[in-house]
Amino acid sequence: MTPHGDGGATDTSRPLPRVPLGRSAAWTTPLAFGGAGVGNLFRAIDDEEAARVLESAWDEGFRTYDTAPHYGLGLSERRLGDALRARPRDTYTLSTKVGRVLDPLSAPHGDDLAHGFAVPATHRRRQDFTADGVRRSLEDSLGRLGLDRVDIVYLHDPDDHERQALDEAYPALEQLRAEGVIRAIGVGMNQSAMPTRFVRDTDIDVVLLAGRYTLLDQSARDDLLPQALDRHVSVVAGGVFNSGLLAAPCPDSTYDYATAPAHLLDQALHLQEVCGRHGVPLRAAAARFPLGHPAVAGVLLGLSSTEQVHDAAAQFRRPVPDAMWRDLKTAARLVDVPREPYVGQRV
């Protein structure tokens, strides 16, 4: 795998601190940038706007970036590579995913909106958790990124391929880790049961968990999180707004990408009222909450505009009174009260 550049751009921003990921050489920042939006998730943005979004994220201190071939049929990877290639390689953490190989279509037509991305349908996704599929997927990703390595590779949604992911994909990633092509192995899913088995049965370093440890859903609290702590595996929490309901609850809000059930909308509105009594937006509490558990190293936010980037950084840095967490603990039946952000060892 050939290096594509070592970077050298001048950096005058104030980066967020680094938190180690498990026992690996990789690290995350407490707030991480999710790259689906710059892959045209739900709406199209042009290359110039995507570049501005990524530049603003860097200026706000983001130093951890997540992407996947799935995001815009490789568009997210290309745009992240363009934004990061000139940066010194040891100043940021980059993750991508394997499990979906992109096969070019002989006669591209239409768009990819059926999968949520406003891009031309130039490829088809093929799930492949074989060892060869893992290596091909990563080689293709490095080509799109224009880089010689990534820091973390996640097995992407192996829900229907658990045995193959364990028997073939994971050993291939172990070999890549031993070769120094990647620094850490992870699994990224929207459930907690299967990642718990990965934590128990393999030597993965990190779990990217979407939507299962939030102000509305703490289902990972009893299985994944204690196992992760016991095995020294870090968790990065994604989907902290449960696809929108915890960002701005209203009758049109979605929960896990479907219309929010009435009882969850009522609960979110109640949580919003509790936060409002302390002068804190609900979205700020939702983004901060997962860090209350010692297994959680960072929070991943999907951002697609400069306004979202600046707001996310401002809300994350906003002081939150302890009294609000005490009230939320009662209102949401929470067990964990968040610690202050930016704790964790700098590396």
CATH architecture heading:
Alpha-Beta Barrel
Query: What is the count of distinct domains?
Result: 1
Structure summary, number of beta strands: 16
Helicity level, as a percent range?
25-40%
CATH class: Alpha Beta
Strand content: 15-25%
Description:
With 347 residues, this protein is α/β, with parallel strands linked by helices. It has one domain (19-331): NADP-dependent oxidoreductase domain (TIM Barrel). Helix content is 34%, strand content 19%. It is built from 10 helices and 16 strands. Strands 3-4-5-10-11-12-13-16 form an 8-stranded parallel barrel, surrounded by 5 helices. Strand 3, helix 1 (47-59) and strand 4 (64-66) form a beta-alpha-beta unit. Helix 5 packs parallel to helix 6. The two termini are 27 Å apart. The model is unreliable at 1-10 and 340-347 (pLDDT under 50).
Layout of strands and helices, then pairs:
Blueprint: E1 19-20, E2 27-28, E3 31-34, H1 47-59, E4 64-66, H2 75-84, E5 93-98, E6 100-104, E7 111-112, E8 117-120, E9 123-127, H3 131-145, E10 152-156, H4 162-179, E11 184-189, H5 193-201, E12 206-210, H6 224-231, E13 234-238, E14 254-255, E15 258-259, H7 262-277, H8 282-288, E16 296-302, H9 306-317, H10 322-331
Parallel strand pairs: 3-4, 3-16, 4-5, 5-10, 10-11, 11-12, 12-13, 13-16
Antiparallel strand pairs: 1-2, 6-9, 7-8, 14-15
Helix pairs in contact: 1-2, 3-4, 5-6, 7-10
